[in-house]
Each structure stands twice: as C-alpha cells, then as structure tokens.
Amino acid sequence: MFYRENGQFKASYRADLALFPVAQDRRAVLALALIAFVAVPWLASDYTFRAVLIPFLVLSLAALGLNVLVGYCGQISLGTGAFMAVGAYAAYNLQVRIEGMPLLLSLIGGGLAATVCGVLFGLPSLRIRGLYLAVATLAAQFFIDWFTNRVPWVTNNSSSGSVSVGTLQLFGLPLETPAQRYLLCLSLVVVCGILTKNLVRGAIGREWMAMRDMDVAAAVIGIRPVHAKLTAFAVSSFIVGVAGALWGFVHLGAWEPAAFGIDKSFQLLFMIIIGGLGSIVGSFFGAAFIVLLPLLLNHVPHWLGLPLSTAAASHLEHMIFGALIVFFLIVEPHGLARLWSTARQKLRLWPFPH
Amino acid sequence: MGFFLETVFGGLMAGMLYALVALGFVLIFKASGVFNFSQGAMVLFAALAMARFAEWFPQWFGFESLLLANVLALLAAAACMVAVAWLVERLALRGLVNQPAITLLMATLGISYFLDGAGQLIFGSSTYKIDVGLPKDPLFVLEDTFPGGLLLNKEDLYSAVIAAALVGALSLFFQKTRTGRALRAVADDHQAAQSIGIPLSRIWVIVWSVGGLVALVAGIIWGSKLGVQYSISLVALKAFPVVILGGLTSVPGAIVGGLIIGVGEKLSEIYLGPTVGGGIENWFAYVLALSFLLVRPQGLFGDKIIDRV
C-alpha cells in the first residue's frame, strides 16, 4: 500500500541509473541517514557506542570489502584478518614515524599498503582456483601473523609486541568522545559503501561477476582474468585495510597481533555468508548479526537464571553460535539479504495477496 | 650428515601424523564434496573422549587394568565419533545438499564451533593425558655408520607405523569391500551412484564415521605426545597445506603431501629459520604448498581440473 512504485516514471537515463530508483527507498535512506548521523550520536550511551555501534560499523566495512572479493568476484579468501592487520600496522607506522601525519591520510595509507599486499597474495589466484585458493590464502594469514610478531620494526620496537595509538585528531580537532569516533567511522562507511555500490554496478563490477559465474567463459568473451581478479583483490584489500586501521585506531586503541588472527578472518567470512554473498546491504546485516549474537548469548544464561561458571558459559556460547550458524545456513542459504528482498517484494503487494 | 638424516627422519615421522589428519579431510571431501573444516575439532573431541573415558571407566566400574580401560575408552570414543557422524549427517548435511562449496565450508566451521564447545563442556577443558603405552625412550640406529648413531624417537616410530597400518587398512577397505566400492562410486558421481540404488545418506554417515575414526587415531597419537588440550584442534591447520599439496581427492596424495610438508618444515626450521628469525613453521608449509600449486593447480595427485564452457 505504501511501497508502490506505480506512477514513478523514469524520463531520463539519469533517473534510470539512479542509486535508489524508487522514491520510497530514497526517503527511507534519507531518514536512516538522518537517524544515524543526528539522532544516534545524541541519544546512544557510551557503552552502546563502544560495544555495539563502532564494532558494527568497522566490521561491516571489512565485510563489505570481503564481499567484493568473495561475493562479487568469487575468489574465496581466508586471509582477511591479515589484510586488516596490514592496514592497521601500516597506518600505525605512518602515524608514529611521520610527525603531524593527518589521521585520514594514515588510514588511507593503511588501505594502500593492504592493497599492495592483497594484489601480491592475489597473484596465485590466476593459477589456483576454488578451495585450493581458499587454503592458499591462509598462507597470507600465517605469514603476516608471523611477520607482525617477529619483525620489531613493524611494532616500532615495542618490547611486548603490542602497540597503542595516542589521541586521535581529525583536521586539528581531537577525537575524544565515542560519539565523535562513531561519526568518523560512519562517514567512512558511507563513503566506501557508495563507492563500492557504484563500482559493482559499473563495467568493472560486471567483469567481476562474469569472472565469478564462470571464469573460462568470461575470458572467452574478452574479459581479462588478470585485470578482473587483481582489481577485485585490490579494491577488496583497500577497504579491508582501511577497516583494519579503523579497528586498531578507533575501536581497540591498543592491540597486539592476535587481534587480527585467523578467527577474525572466519568471523568476517561468516558475516558475508550470513548476510548474503554479492550484496552490499548483506554485509551490513551480516555484521550486525555477528556483532549482536555474542552480546545476546552472553546475557541468555543470566536471564534464565542459570548458575553457570564462566568457562561453561563460554563453551555453551560456542555451541549455540555454531548450531545457529548451521541452522541459518540450512534455512536461508542465500543470507539475510535474500530475506530482505523477499520482504520488499511482499511489501509491494501488501495487503493484497497477488 | 647424521644430523641432516635425523632431521629428515623427524620430518617424515611428523609428516606421517599430518598425513593422518589430512586423510580425514580427503575421505570426507571425496565422498561428500565437503571441505571439512571441523576435522580439527573432531580430533579434539575424539581425543578428549578417549582421555576422559580412560580415566572415568576404572572409577565407575572399579577395576585397575590400564589395558582394559584403554580398550573400553577406545570403543566408547569410537561410538561417540559414529554418533557425531550420524548427527552431522542428520542435522546439517541433509539440509545442505547441492549448496555451493563455500556454504558447506562455513557449515563445517559452525560444526567445529559446536564440537569445540560440546567437547569441552562435556569432558572438561583442562589438559589431560592419554597413556596407551607408547614407549617414550629414544632409539639409536646405524651406530657403526655415523659417530654416535642416529637418534630416533621410538614413540614417533610407533605412531608412524600405526599411521601406515591405518592407511593400508583404509585402502583395502576402499578397494576390496562392497561398502568401499559404494563409497568410491559416490565420490565419482553422486547422481549416478544414487540412480543405481546406493543410499547417499547412509554413505555419508559411513564416510563421516570413518573420518571420525581417523580423527580418533590422530587424536590418540597427538594426545599421547602432547597431552590433550584445546590446542590439539589446531593440528588441522597443519593439515590444510598437506591436503592441497597432495590434491583434495587423493588418498596417496595426502600421504606423500604429509611427508613432503613434514620434511620441508623440519629442514626449513633448521636451515632457514635462524636467518629469518625462527618460528617460520607456521607459514612455511603453506608457502611450500603454494609453490607446488603454482606448477600443478590441482595438487600432486588431484583430479585434473577440466573446464567446460
């Protein structure tokens, strides 16, 4: 009843190519942006920012990057955590070694360093495919884990191997309150989201998707596999690198190499599978799911009044998490994004059945 | 020279154990097309079950014999693994038929979370030991060829023999028995196998059980070497490069891959490690496997990848 596009005619190519062709969508997105930029910083508590909103935003950025590679280009990667680490450590070194380095430039520098690494570790994808490639990307994970642990230069010769960043400044303004940090993350997420959306619906995105659907056929119709695969690796690692830098700078503040271990890679892969492969909104849904689920599971024994030891509770949490993942994959293998689009289809006809 | 040979032998022994874990991957991948990330969790679960049952049975039934306790614990742990296989097929795989490889892979990751949690919740999460009577004393051989002889670890030797025997038994099972033939048929072509009346679901239960039993053997050997604790499930991460090096679908590939990785890892640790700062065994195996794959993308013995447009 409310969600009808009847009567909204597209009179120009511009209108036809609009990011949100349906007027109701435009209004909804505008409202969402207003809420996110104005209402949330005003209303949310510090705890919400620290434990929920900032991790959600940063991880959805990383998931977005991974989705470009896995969802759009079809190259499974288990080394995302490593690329986040590259971003974080590169940004850290830029910040520490260059006096007065602007924060934004450090973040972008982290992204660029991750891009170089991503392209380097993406090179085998030209020869190796499928599950073999997935396992091969673990090489990146373990190599970079080792590198950040063993090479003292990376951590600025810190004796414990952990690094910490001082106060953050953006354009001369200190970023102190969680709300300010949240706004920084949010702006970066919005910019990257729009850029990615436009990339994947442009020529390059179509090359990626052709490569994903069948690489030999794509090569036959004139898509260069080298170009398509490596650009996907580059774009994906850039976004993941920026997300890694944000994770280190804004969320953690101080971290050690274990923060970007293989668990992070798996977690991100879970996000995009549960959110929906090859879908921009899917990355956000998936990140929300994976960030919120452990928080909820944490509270469940408490609500039920079960007297559980911490160890038992954490094992139970593991079990429920694993079981939910399997359950979810069985019920909706295409992810939350598919549920979302089904809901929209239904909404168009509502309240009529046909 | 003696030292070099010692290193190579050590590598071969370690490689045999990697091969044992890799074998579980290959069996399951061949028959159900699932890249089973939960193999490590299965090793942990099996080893925990074995260690704890061997501790509990004498207390419950009031007997002293270590042998009896071990035999009973082995049977109970094996029953546990068969139950796990049955549950996995019933609750997870059955609902995921025809899904893309990555979805199945993530599902097995979910299973591995579940098994990690369940194993530690049921059996406890501290370090336990498995004592199946593997000898711990060192063994010197070829003392007349090299000064001082070669130092071998008897425990490693025994485990390598057990692993080799298991591999032999499995290949006999696959080649000579009716069930083995059905398993190979399913591995070849699901649909064709189903159309001549091979029940897919039962085959999956069997193959996951076999995978579970292999995990049990691996768990017992690793557990008696290192003690049973959470880190044992990380053994699986050592087995991944072995699997892709040998080829995802090849049983001999798992063995040869395991030996190559084992030897390569030990040699690199000793001859390359000091120059780059040590601790390289975590990634060296992957880089080694990667460089082999660049030449042969399907692994050493894997099925040739044929593309049809």
The percent range for strand residues of chain A is under 5%
Secondary structure tally, helices of chain B: 11
The assigned CATH architecture of chain B is Orthogonal Bundle
Estimate the helix proportion of chain A, in percent: over 70%
Low-confidence stretches of chain A: none
User: What is the CATH C level class of chain A, in words?
Assistant: Mainly Alpha
The CATH architecture of chain A comes to: Orthogonal Bundle
Strand content range of chain B: under 5%
- Low-pLDDT stretches of chain B are none
Spatial shape of chain B: globular
Describe this structure in words.
The complex is a heterodimer of chains A (354) and B (309). With 354 residues, chain A is mostly helical. Chain A has a single domain, classed as ABC transporter involved in vitamin B12 uptake, BtuC, CATH 1.10.3470. Chain A contains 14 helices and four strands. In chain A, the strands form two sheets. In chain A, strands 1-4 form a two-stranded antiparallel ribbon. In chain A, strands 2-3 form a two-stranded antiparallel ribbon. In chain A, helix 4 packs antiparallel against helix 5 (103-122) and helix 4 (80-97) crosses helix 10 (225-252). The radius of gyration of chain A is 21 Å and the shape is globular. Chain B is mainly alpha-helical and 309 residues long. Chain B has a single domain (2-295), classed as ABC transporter involved in vitamin B12 uptake, BtuC, CATH 1.10.3470. In chain B, 72% of the residues lie in helices and 3% in strands. Chain B has a two-stranded antiparallel ribbon with strand order 1-2. In chain B, helix 1 (2-32) packs across helix 6 (178-188) and helix 3 crosses helix 8 (200-226). Chain B is globular, with a radius of gyration of 20 Å. The mean pLDDT of chain B is 83. Chains A and B meet through helix 6, helix 9, helix 11 and helix 13 of A and helix 4, helix 9 and helix 11 of B.
